[in-house]
Amino acid sequence: MAKVLLTVTRAPSEASLDAVKRDLGLGDDDIDAEFGVVNIDPNRDRYAVLVEESAAERVGNAPGVDGPFSNPRIEPFGPPDR
Fold first, then answer.
1. Local confidence pLDDT in tens for the 82 residues of the chain
2. What distance in Å separates the CA atoms of residue 45 and residue 72, rounded to the nearest whole number?
């Protein structure tokens, strides 16, 4: 299944992968551990996580969670200019 992005608002001390999984009830197969928890707005304590679509449907209405947002593959349009 495809993965999508969610944004979560968390205190920096609660922005670990384990804390996000625990708070949202996500299992190891629901969240991309390699992507991790990425700080996208330090001024508002906003973080991004990459999750399975089915997980996003379950937790998308939780307090402090926004999304899902698409995660399109980024590829070059052609050979690099020389």
1. 689 999 999 999 999 999 999 999 999 999 999 999 999 999 999 999 999 999 999 998 899 999 999 988 888 787 877 7
2. 24
Residue 9 CA: distances (Å) to CA of 34, 48, 53: 20, 9, 19
d(CA 49, CA 3): 10
Query: Domains, the chain, ranges and CATH?
Result: 3-69 (3.30.70)
Q: Which of 55, 60, 46, 65 is nearest to 27 (CA)?
A: 55
